[in-house]
Write a structure and sequence with these properties.
The complex is a heterodimer of chains A (228) and B (428).
Chain A (H helix, E strand, L loop, with lengths): L1 H21 L4 H12 L6 H13 L3 H17 L35 H19 L4 H14 L5 H11 L6 H4 L3 H19 L1 H16 L14
Chain B lengths: L7 H6 L12 H28 L5 H28 L19 H24 L6 H24 L8 H4 L8 H19 L20 H20 L8 H26 L6 H18 L5 H24 L8 H18 L8 H31 L7 H6 L1 H6 L18
Helix pairs in contact in B: 2-3, 2-4, 2-8, 3-4, 3-5, 4-5, 4-7, 5-7, 5-13, 7-12, 7-13, 8-9, 8-10, 9-10, 9-11, 10-11, 10-12, 11-12, 12-13
The chains are: A mainly alpha (228), B mainly alpha (428).
Pfam families (chain B): Ammonium_transp (PF00909)
InterPro entries (chain B): Ammonium/urea_transptr, Ammonium_transpt, Ammonium_transpt_CS, NH4_transpt_AmtB-like_dom
Protein name (chain B): Ammonium transporter
Chain lengths: 228, 428
């Protein structure tokens, strides 16, 4: 009975830790992985668990570290020693005999995390562009149009893109793209920013844009670094 | 060896014993070995200088190119370049023996080692000029061509005939003691060809042609690089005597004074032009002075060495302006420092030749040599870079420029703690 209470407290602590870092939408997925493969493991199963979860969610190193720290904090807040084993059962090994890790749909188009993260990055770049010298925004739009042509965007797509950049069109065009095109477009935003403002300002702008997108809850599912 | 006769005017003017055959006495061999090590150490100076001038995301790539110049350059020079440059030179145009040399004497081996360092120096000048956008593979191929062909052929015209014969420029009295033209202008013109072929960095020039500054990521590294280069130059110029004689003293004093004058001259030039006293430009001035004195360090009095260094400063500063107006993106200023100041120094070696000051004949021969270097190197290096561009591709694509060549070329990042925002998500 005591063991059940301890396991329950541990599970609650994990859920609270996930809430801080991943947002509520992935808590169930994360806990399912825990219940299925790690709940009966040794203390260091927690490390393996975070590694597997981070791989499933495609989290970059930094977020993986944040996730681990959040879990440790949550465990300590509940008086659970994260280094103490919950059971003496054998630690599960990741390998061919393991059940498939659940994949989380990062999606494309619509209101997918990828779209929302890309949109945040793009808007941050555009805000920086409009705040800069007179004429930079025009040069930026022209460069974007020119380079989009050499990256497989047809005339109508380029036109839609430029209208969106100029604030004359809604997000419909962008919603229709897949993740790979978001990456290409992010690169084109960088190239156009280089031409309009110079590479130093473009690097700074892109860094700010990525940092701004990292504040979105969707960044846990689709880190903005995936666009770079 | 061929160069030693240039010491004659100094020797005549000072109480210095006549030179024995070079690289025979143990002291000579020891000195040239030390000098070779100092010239080797110059590669570290170039690496720090060029790496510092590059942005953080490209610093490792630049340093890799310096290493490649040293390594591939050594192999190429040993296999082909040494024979072309110093083999028996019956025609005056190139050497034709001592390829893949395996049976050299100890003295000849020391000479080969020393000269291999010079070849690597000529090649590594290019890496700074084309930094941040030229791919590593094609750069290595170009470096091999420079050390195996472009540099040795011109070198044979001036210093050729170590094993017999002689170069056609040397026969006309061309003076270049340690290589203002042979090493530095050749490297500088190769750098110019490379910079033109690869084009400027993304956004380096605004659409209307206005140049945009792209600051280097590590200015202390640049300064340290120049200190090391200055130190290494004592081996570069001093070792070119090929003898541990008191002549080395003249050479080193001139070298040191010209470097100091180059830096002081840059300070004055920037003041006269009303520009900020940039550290990067000022320390480049010291290198400009060193490059300029390299040709005449053994053949001009100290006062003229200072003048040579002083004049190198505006040549470097205004030369950099000219390149910017022509929209040539030279990241470290290699072309003005090595190309233009090498040409100036070679001219100065003719103008200020001890015992034969301002001789028109000598100046004309110097101009002939300067022109010959330009006419040989720029087209051949241009052809090499053009062929690489048309075949394997020379330039990193814009996505790689965005991510930085450290990661895209080498899968390593020089400063991961500072670059994590720009790390991509694991895509190839």
């Amino acid at each position: 009975m005591a063991r059940d209470d301890q396991a329950s407290a541990l599970r609650d602590a994990l859920a609270a830790g996930f809430e801080d870092v991943l947002g509520s939408q992935h808590v169930e997925t994360a806990l399912r992985l825990w219940d299925r493969h790690f709940a009966a493991g040794k203390s260091h199963a927690l490390i393996e668990y975070v590694n597997q979860l981070a791989a499933a969610l495609m989290l970059p190193t930094r977020q993986r570290h944040e996730l681990r720290m959040a879990l440790y904090r949550a465990l300590l807040a509940r008086g659970i020693d994260p280094t103490r084993g919950s059971d003496t059962a054998r630690t599960p090994r990741a390998g061919a005999d393991s059940a498939p890790i659940p994949r989380i749909d990062i999606g494309a188009g619509g209101n997918s995390p990828a779209f929302r993260v890309f949109r945040q990055v793009a808007l941050a770049v555009l805000r920086g562009m409009r705040a800069d010298a007179l004429g930079a925004a025009r040069t930026f739009a022209e460069a974007l149009d020119r380079h989009a042509g050499s990256h497989g965007f047809d005339a109508s797509a380029r036109s839609a893109l430029v209208r969106w950049v100029d604030g004359e069109a809604a997000d419909d065009f962008l919603r229709s793209l897949d993740v790979e095109r978001y990456s290409v477009l992010t690169h084109l935003l960088y190239v156009a920013a280089c031409e309009a403002l110079g590479p130093v300002a473009a690097d700074r702008l892109m860094s700010q844009a990525v940092r701004s997108a990292e504040t979105l809850p969707e960044a846990a599912t689709f880190p903005p670094q995936r666009l770079l | 060896m061929q160069r030693l006769h240039y010491l004659v005017p100094l020797i005549a003017a000072a109480p210095v014993p006549a030179l024995a055959a070079p690289l025979e006495a143990p002291a000579d061999i020891a000195w040239v070995c030390i000098a070779a090590a100092l010239v080797f150490f110059m590669q570290a100076g170039f690496a720090l200088l060029e790496g510092g001038f590059a942005r953080a995301k490209n610093s490792t790539n630049v340093i890799m190119k310096n290493f490649a110049d040293l390594a591939f350059g050594a192999l190429a020079f040993w296999a082909v370049g040494f024979g072309l440059m110093f083999g028996v030179n019956a025609t005056g145009w190139f050497g034709a023996t001592h390829f893949l040399p395996e049976a050299l004497t100890g003295s000849e081996s020391v000479f080969l080692l020393f000269q291999a360092m010079f070849a690597a120096t000529a090649a590594t000048i290019v890496s700074g000029s084309v930094a941040e956008r030229m791919r590593f593979g094609p750069y290595v191929i170009a470096s091999v061509f420079i050390t195996a062909l472009i540099y040795p052929v011109f070198g044979s015209w001036v210093w050729g005939g170590f094993f017999g014969g002689g170069g056609w420029l040397a026969a006309r009295g061309f003076t270049d003691f340690a290589g203002s033209t042979v090493v530095h202008s050749v490297g500088g013109w190769c750098a110019l060809a490379g910079a033109i072929a690869v084009g400027p960095r993304l956004g380096r020039f605004a659409p209307d042609g206005t140049p945009r500054s792209i600051p280097g990521h590590n200015l202390p590294s640049i300064a340290l690089g120049v200190f090391i280069l200055w130190l290494g130059w004592f081996g570069f110029n001093g070792g070119s005597t090929l003898a541990a004689s008191t002549d080395v003293g003249f050479v080193l004093v001139n070298t040191h004074l010209a470097a100091a004058a180059g830096m002081a001259g840059t300070y004055l030039t920037l003041q006269l032009l009303g520009r900020p006293l940039l550290m990067t430009t000022t320390v480049n001035g010291a290198i400009a002075g060193l490059v300029a004195i390299t040709a005449g360090c053994a053949t001009m009095p100290a006062g003229f060495a200072i003048l040579t260094g002083l004049v190198a400063a505006p040549v470097m500063v205004l030369g950099a302006d000219l390149l910017e107006r022509l929209r040539v993106d030279d990241v470290v200023g290699a072309v003005p420092v090595h190309g233009f100041c090498g040409a100036w120094g070679t001219l100065a070696a003719g103008l200020f030749y001890a015992g034969d000051l301002f001789s028109t004949d000598r100046v004309l021969v110097q101009l002939l040599g300067i022109g010959a270097a330009l006419l040989w190197v720029l087209p051949t290096a241009g052809l090499v870079f053009w062929l690489l561009k048309r075949t394997v591709g020379l330039r990193a694509d814009t996505l790689h420029e965005q991510r930085g060549l450290d990661y895209t070329e080498h899968y390593e990042i020089g400063y991961p703690e500072f670059q994590k925002e720009l790390l991509h998500g694991g895509k190839g």
